[in-house]
Specification:
It is a single chain. The protein is of the alpha/beta class. The chain has two domains: about 180 residues, Rossmann fold (3-Layer(aba) Sandwich), CATH 3.40.50; about 55 residues. Helix content is about 30%, strand content about 35%. A seven-stranded mixed sheet has the order 3-2-1-4-5-11-10, with helices on both faces. The protein is globular, with a radius of gyration of 17 Å.
Length: about 250
């Protein structure tokens, strides 16, 4: 299995097609607006990927700084900024390695699209501490991960199947003892012999441990939702876990 960074560097070439970037961008703008409170002007996006969340936030008039450990994802995000006329600064850092020069700079930090589940357990506490220090006094954090309490109970292998321009993308899991392997199989319907499979290990953090770690880091007033629509979180049925907390 290749490294997590190799996985996302490779996926960057077709990621926007797989998620339908334009559609995702429109949905995100509407959903994220509910979390942008009065007085918020500066935002950091941790694990920005190809930029859908960063651009959504920038288009609401916020000053956005984006971070990602995958340089190819950042390159794709920069191209998307050109297409959408978004002004965003990008930096090639993982959460745990963001420099101290970014401390006390942001009103809001977002980490969406299951980014946190890609952070190795031995880097998770350091990552949360870094995020906490990056926030200004009374700053807020917004996290979105998949609801692994439901996923680990049901053990459904197929995550999603999408198709565009005769290309198919199948996202699926392999289940281990304490982690999951996330796979993407890409192939063309006319050339099924010409396929590509990439895999990476992810870490199924649950609501209780994330909430406890946020509290240990110094966050308070933690709220749990079942999605960015602020639906009630139910560990048995919610597809997502969204956490909103204050410094």
């Amino acid at each position: 299995m290749k490294t997590n960074i190799f996985f996302y560097n490779t996926a960057s070439g077709y990621y926007d097609k797989m998620i339908d970037f334009e559609s995702a961008l429109n949905k995100r703008k509407n959903l994220l607006s509910d979390f942008v409170k009065s007085g918020i002007s500066s935002v950091a996006d941790i694990g920005c990927g190809t930029g859908v969340d960063s651009i959504s936030l920038a288009q609401t008039g916020l000053c956005v700084t984006a971070f990602d450990p995958s340089i190819e994802m950042i390159n794709s995000a920069k191209e998307n900024c050109k297409k959408t006329n978004a002004q965003i600064q990008f930096f090639n850092y993982s959460a745990a390695n963001i420099p101290k020069s970014f401390f006390n700079k942001f009103d809001l930090i977002v980490s969406l699209g299951n980014t946190i589940a890609n952070i190795n357990p031995d880097q998770l506490e350091k990552s949360f501490d870094r995020i906490f220090r990056m926030l200004k006094t009374d700053g807020r954090i917004l996290i979105q991960v998949l609801n692994y309490e439901k996923i680990l109970k049901e053990k459904e292998r197929i995550v999603n199947i999408t198709q565009k321009d005769n290309e198919y993308f199948i996202r699926f899991y392999d289940y281990g003892n304490n982690d999951l392997t996330f796979n993407i199989l890409k192939f063309n319907a006319d050339k099924t012999f010409d396929k590509e499979l990439i895999s990476t290990k992810i870490f199924p953090y649950k609501s209780k441990e994330l909430k406890q770690l946020l509290k240990k880091t110094g966050f308070n007033k933690t709220q749990l939702f079942g999605g960015l629509d602020k639906s009630l979180f139910n560990p048995k049925v919610s597809n997502d876990l969204v956490i909103y907390a204050e410094k």
